[in-house]
Amino acid sequence: MYVSMEKMLAKANRNNYAVMAINCFNLESAYATISAAEALQAPVIIDLLMEHLQKHLPREYVLPGIIQMAKAAQVDVAINLDHGKDKDYVLASIKAGFSSVMMDASAHGYDENIRITEEVVKLARAQGVSVEAEMGNMGAVAGDQWTQADMYTNPEEAIKFINDTNVTALAISFGSSHGIMPPGFVPKFDFSIIEDIKKATNSPLVLHGGSGCGEANIKRAIQCGINKVNVGSDVMKAQADSVFEQQEATRNLEYVDLMTGTMQAAKEMVQSYIEISGSVNQANTTH
């Protein structure tokens, strides 16, 4: 069933688990993600990154097919525009059919972030579309641009932001970074940031950059109040590794079979994160 994030995250918030949000970039990755969720009877969010839609396959080609998958799914599926940094693109995405959007104005000053987010929330809610926003800044593994402590979300500002904007969910920075973590490295989280914001607002909170954060970190973050966990890099790496392994085994493998193999690798990785998130058997009970 195709839904917004509103009810699924509200239920996750009430029952102290998280919904997995998987970065997908084509029909195959979305199909694998939904199949994983159906196998475990879990709600799921398909995250389509604005940058991917602009640089690779355009929104008008990718979105309609994934919406059809979501409508036919045996579990609740939301499709969320991830890191929408341009307000006009975000608003156009609402009209294009996204059930949820992220208005990421975190690069702006605090007051401007609130102003932009408030405007999007007002227009989105009129269309039944949920809105995620971001406070604080996220770094990246690439180029050693790791998230530093001075980039963490200020709890007092986040509390005011949530109260002023009435966003569906807020992405916060407390130690994770976007990208594939080096082997053996596990980031250190400041869990008090989650606890302080959750205690004051009881609002759904989001962990970005979940890849490679470690099962213990993610589970504790959920216990503290995270209700949406974004993962992309680990799933894409599983698919890339599958290509390498299949090509090593059979160099003349037909492309359609090669792609099918990557879908299985993606499905298995998504299932592993669904199990960590606590959302197994939480499907179809949000209405």
Number of helices: 11
How many domain units? 1
| Helix/strand class | alpha/beta
DSSP strand count: 10
Overall pLDDT level: 93
CA-based gyration radius: 18 Å
CATH architecture: Alpha-Beta Barrel
CATH class: Alpha Beta
Look at the structure and name the CATH superfamily: Aldolase class I
> What amount of the residues lies in strands?
15-25%
Biggest pleated-sheet summary? 8 strands, parallel, barrel
Helices and strands in order:
Blueprint: H1 5-15, E1 19-24, H2 27-39, E2 44-49, H3 50-55, H4 59-72, E3 77-84, H5 87-96, E4 100-103, H6 110-125, E5 130-135, E6 139-140, H7 155-165, E7 169-172, E8 177-178, H8 191-201, E9 205-207, H9 215-224, E10 226-231, H10 233-249, H11 255-277
Parallel strand pairs: 1-2, 1-10, 2-3, 3-4, 4-5, 5-7, 6-8, 7-9, 9-10
Helix pairs in contact: 2-4, 2-11, 5-6, 6-7, 7-8, 10-11
GO molecular function: fructose-bisphosphate aldolase activity
Pfam family, one: F_bP_aldolase
Cofactor: Zn(2+)
